[in-house]
Design a protein that fits this description.
The complex is a heterodimer of chains A (333) and B (341). Chain A has 333 residues and is an alpha/beta fold. Chain A contains eleven helices and 14 strands. Chain A has a seven-stranded mixed beta sheet, with helices on both faces. In chain A, strands 9-11-10-13-14 form a five-stranded mixed beta sheet, with helices on both faces. A two-stranded antiparallel sheet of chain A has the order 1-8. In chain A, helix 1 runs parallel beside helix 6, helix 3 runs parallel beside helix 4 and helix 8 packs across helix 9. Chain B is an alpha/beta fold and 341 residues long. Chain B has one domain: Thiamin diphosphate (ThDP)-binding fold, Pyr/PP domains (Rossmann fold, 3-Layer(aba) Sandwich), CATH 3.40.50.970. Chain B has a six-stranded parallel beta sheet with strand order 2-1-3-4-8-7, sandwiched between helices. Classes of the chains: A alpha/beta (333), B alpha/beta (341). The interface between A and B is large, with 34 and 42 residues. The structure holds thiamine diphosphate. Thiamine diphosphate (TPP) sits at the interface of chains B and A.
């Protein structure tokens, strides 16, 4: 049945995640979830509420506060016949699991000459403006996107979140899945029933002809807001979401930039050495002869995320800032 | 009254004048922390405070008992549930509130917030929002104290949840190998977030430091006198160069894991909460003892409570009126000033 003909429902981003997990838990007895307060509490974000009631504590496992060990155990369990989904509450804590992900999970298949596989998913969060200060607000997906052997998904809508998470669980490789914690309550249309979304396929969230805005996760809504404002002054912006940073759908990004001749890349990770840098260079390289302006990058300000709301709000790209940048690139003053 | 209290009240009455003052001081500090946290709760629930807060109410005797055994120059590291530690180590109420509201006058100029209060003046190396995140930092400060020979002692506060973190064991191992002047204070408030510690910790908690040969004691963390006397012994021991110690305090948080954790029935019972609040309250326990042993009148406690409440109200008002940081400050303090190369 094609997607268009399916009955659609409005559900939240968090519900989409939960549905994907529940469907995969039902479909494959090897899938299990391990993390801190994932069972009765359903995580502090309540995203997993109800799963322990259906699948029991053997498959929805509350762990001690031991991020490195549960991740490493995920690696070992994945190698030996299970499909672990490791829950790391705040994306900031991926620093605690870096050896297990970077030196172990990511390299296992290659180092073993293709003999071992690590089909695991590490779900975690990202996103600022929750007033949670420097150790609970970062978007660290670029750190993981740096590592050959990992895959990194960074969905922006409930629809994408569900389809990508199901793909992640079925993938034969370690996948890191970043969910913006500020989007859990955002609603979107999701079809009834089964579907998956392939990795490495960008999605045009709004077609346009004057400028390309490449945006990820929370920044897609920001880009769409900016596109609305740009339309009011007669500029047509195309918003395109790569959906996975690794693999990256370079071709789609390049094609969009070739079509519009201008590009901005917006992402909530730190701007320096960030996802925006990689994508901007892909576009600059691939669309060089078609570009009428330098490719611009907008990321989180290069500072630890401050607590004070007045300061924190300055650190994240805003609709207005993206609008201003786009206007300038299009030669409007 | 517990057995221990009976014994002390009857058998071992300390030199009256001095101890009354000492313990009335501790009562005041505990009352101040409680008043502070109640105000935090009020500010939060009336949407005057951004972010979230982990209240220390119920655990006051641990911070006060331990910090009363320290000098201002000694160091502490604190946790996400850190307001009590910071106040007990000498932070001022007004600047604490200012930080919690993200104001310029706060201890971290508004940049840290509730989970990151730090204050060199009172020896506070900082509260940490990473569970167990300060285990090695505290141990490193103890290493420095030993290298510098300055006689300082470090207290590393953490919840029992931090026993899940490998870093703590790596650090404790070195502290014992090198006889570092550090006291690991584990506040077992029975829960890591929403999970009872028995579901996350195998074996006995106190056996873990003992495996490294670290001197370990367990106390009723609701009895500030016991906490204080034990901490004092362990701190002086460390100061003499006899090495680290581990103090396990049995305690309880009265409120939720954080201010928004209202419906707690799925992980703990109302009866349990009532038991700790009614039978094991640290303020009530100390007040009862002071009244019994020294005939301190109820009005003395009321006076203390009124005065700390006034201080807290004034501090909160100061913070509410205080200005936010200038927007230009967002890029300040990323790096410390260094001399030209
Ligand atoms: C490394 C890390 N993992 C998870 C968390 C999320 N978290 C914050 S507090 C907490 C529970 C901590 O329990 P405990 O150490 O016993 O302290 P308590 O909150 O009971 O005072 C958790 C899991 C965190 N802040 N840091």
């Amino acid at each position: 049945m094609s997607m268009q003909n399916r009955p659609m429902r409005e559900i939240t981003f968090g519900e989409a995640i939960r549905e994907a997990l529940a469907e995969e838990l039902r479909r494959d007895p090897r899938v299990f979830i391990i993390g801190e307060d994932v069972a009765e509490a359903g995580t502090p974000f309540k995203v997993l509420s109800g799963l322990v009631q259906e699948f029991g504590p053997e498959r929805i496992m509350d762990s001690p506060i031991s991020e490195a060990a549960i991740t490493g155990m995920g690696v070992g369990a994945a190698m030996t016949g299970m499909r672990p989904v490791v829950d790391i509450m705040f994306g900031d804590f991926v620093t605690l699991v870096m050896d297990q992900m970077v030196n172990q999970a990511a390299k296992m298949h290659y180092m073993s000459g293709g003999s071992w596989k690590v089909p695991m998913v590490l779900r975690t969060t990202m996103g600022a403006t929750r007033r949670s200060a420097a150790q609970h607000s970062q978007s660290l997906h670029a750190l993981l996107s740096h590592i050959p052997g990992l895959k990194v998904a960074i969905p922006s809508t409930p629809y994408d979140a569900k389809g990508l998470l199901k793909t992640a669980i079925r993938d034969e490789n370690p996948v890191v899945f970043f969910e913006d914690k500020m989007m859990y309550r955002n609603k979107g249309l999701v079809p009834e029933g089964e579907y998956t979304i392939p990795f490495g396929v960008a999605d045009v969230k709004r077609p346009g002809s004057d400028i390309t805005i490449v945006a990820t996760s929370s920044m897609v809504a920001v880009a769409l807001g900016a596109a609305d404002k740009l339309a009011e002054i007669g500029l047509s912006a195309e918003v395109i979401d790569p959906r996975t940073t690794l693999p990256l759908d370079k071709e789609a990004l390049i094609q969009s930039a070739k079509k519009t001749s201008r590009a901005i890349v917006v992402d909530e990770g730190y701007e320096q050495y960030g996802v925006t840098a990689e994508i901007a260079s892909v576009i600059a390289d691939g669309a060089f002869y078609y570009l009428d302006a330098p490719v611009k990058r907008m990321g989180a300000m290069n500072v630890p995320i401050p607590f004070s709301p007045v300061l924190e709000d300055l650190t994240v790209p805003t609709e207005q800032a993206v609008f201003d940048m786009a206007k300038t690139l299009c030669g409007r003053v | 009254m517990t057995d221990a209290m009976d014994k002390r009240a009857a058998g071992n009455p300390p030199a009256p004048g001095m101890d009354v003052e000492l313990y009335l001081g501790m009562y005041e500090q505990m009352a101040k922390i409680r008043a502070f946290e109640n105000k935090v709760n009020e500010l939060y629930t009336s949407a005057k405070m951004p972010g979230l807060s982990h209240l220390y109410i119920g655990e006051e005797a641990v911070a006060v008992g331990v910090c009363s055994a320290l000098t201002r120059e000694d160091y502490i590291t604190s946790t996400h549930r850190g307001h009590g530690h910071c106040l007990a180590k000498g932070a001022q109420v007004d600047r604490m509130f200012a930080e919690l509201l993200g104001k310029k006058a706060g201890y971290c100029a508004g940049k840290g917030g509730s989970m990151h209060i730090a204050d060199p003046q009172s020896g506070n190396l900082g509260a940490n929002a990473i569970v167990g995140g300060s285990a090695a930092i505290a141990t490193g400060a103890a290493l420095a104290a030993k290298k510098l020979g300055n006689g300082r002692v470090v207290v590393c506060f953490f919840g029992e949840g931090a026993l899940g973190q490998g870093l703590l064991y790596e650090a404790m191992n070195m502290a014992q190998l090198w006889k570092l002047p550090i006291l690991y204070v584990c506040e077992n408030n029975q829960y890591n977030e929403y999970t009872h510690f028995r579901e996350t910790a195998a074996g006995e908690l106190a056996d873990r430091p003992k495996a490294f040969g670290i001197h370990t004691e367990t106390v009723d963390g609701q009895d500030v006198r016991l906490v204080y006397e034990t901490a004092q012994r362990l701190v002086e021991r460390a100061r003499r160069g006899e090495g680290p110690a581990f103090l396990l305090c049995e305690t309880y948080r009265y409120h939720g894991h954080h201010v928004g954790d209202i419906d707690r029935s799925y992980y703990r019972s109302k009866e349990e909460e009532r038991y700790w609040q009614e039978q094991r309250d640290p303020l009530k326990t100390l007040a009862d003892w002071l009244s019994g042993a020294f005939q301190v009148h109820r009005s003395a406690f009321e006076q203390i409570e009124n005065s700390v409440r006034a201080e807290v109200e004034a501090g909160a008002e100061f913070a509410i009126q205080a200005p936010f940081p200038d927007l230009s400050e967002v890029t300040e303090h990323v790096y410390a000033e260094s001399p030209d190369a």
